Amino acid sequence: MQTIDFSPFYRSTVGFDRLFNRLDGLVGQEAKTYPPYNIERLGDNAYRISIAVAGFAQSDIVIESKENSLSIKGAKAPEGEDNKREFLHRGIAERAFELRFQLAEYVEVTGASLEHGLLHVELKRELPESKKPRTIAIAAAGKTIEDQTVN
């Protein structure tokens, strides 16, 4: 396993300690391979996570968004004795799963849909008005530049 030393960055940056702590935490995690999923960028501020959930019903899946974390859990209800099926070959995995995603600041879940065995989770990054760039008027000798007329 490869480790990365972030100490040179700590010496020359201010306020990025949370980012480096997250990166340190990701290095030790093993990659999740079940169920398979895609992460797409749909636009400048729109994203979609698509997860292959063949065999799962809408009632078997729980999506939870809390702070900057997204958790998606799936679990099939156990079959009763009268519904026992005999498989000659079982290639469709229906085991329980849990996927966790770290979301950037201001990224919110806007919706989810289940179609053709794929769970689509829609995400959008929306900056609050206080964080958006704005133009500042410059005052000159009691007048603002906007008030002056050009001859």
Blueprint of the fold:
Layout: H1 7-12, H2 17-27, E1 37-41, E2 46-52, E3 61-66, E4 69-74, E5 97-102, E6 107-115, E7 118-125, E8 139-140, E9 143-144
Antiparallel strand pairs: 1-2, 2-7, 3-4, 4-5, 6-7, 8-9
Provide a brief overview of the structure.
This protein has helices at 7-12, 17-27, and strands spanning 37-41, 46-52, 61-66, 69-74, 97-102, 107-115, 118-125, 139-140, 143-144. The protein is mainly beta and 151 residues long. The model has no long low-confidence stretch (mean pLDDT 82).
What does this structure look like?
There is one protein chain. The chain has 151 residues and is mainly beta. It has two domains: 1-30, no CATH class; 32-78 and 91-143, Immunoglobulin-like. The protein has two helices and nine strands. The chain has a four-stranded antiparallel sheet, with no helix packed on it. Strands 3-4-5 form a three-stranded antiparallel sheet, with no helix packed on it. A hairpin with a 2-residue loop joins strand 3 (61-66) and strand 4. The protein is elongated, with a radius of gyration of 24 Å. The mean pLDDT is 82.
Classified by CATH, the class of the largest domain is: Mainly Beta
- Whole-number average pLDDT? 82
SS-based class: mainly beta
CATH fold label of the largest domain: Immunoglobulin-like
Report low-confidence residues grouped into runs of 5 or more. Answer: none
Strand order of the largest sheet: 1-2-7-6
Order of helices and strands: HHEEEEEEEEE
**Rg value:** 24 Å
The tally of beta strands, per DSSP, is 9
Write down the overall geometry: elongated
Structural domain tally: 2
Count the DSSP helices: 2
Amount of helix: 10-25%
**Biggest beta-sheet profile:** 4 strands, antiparallel
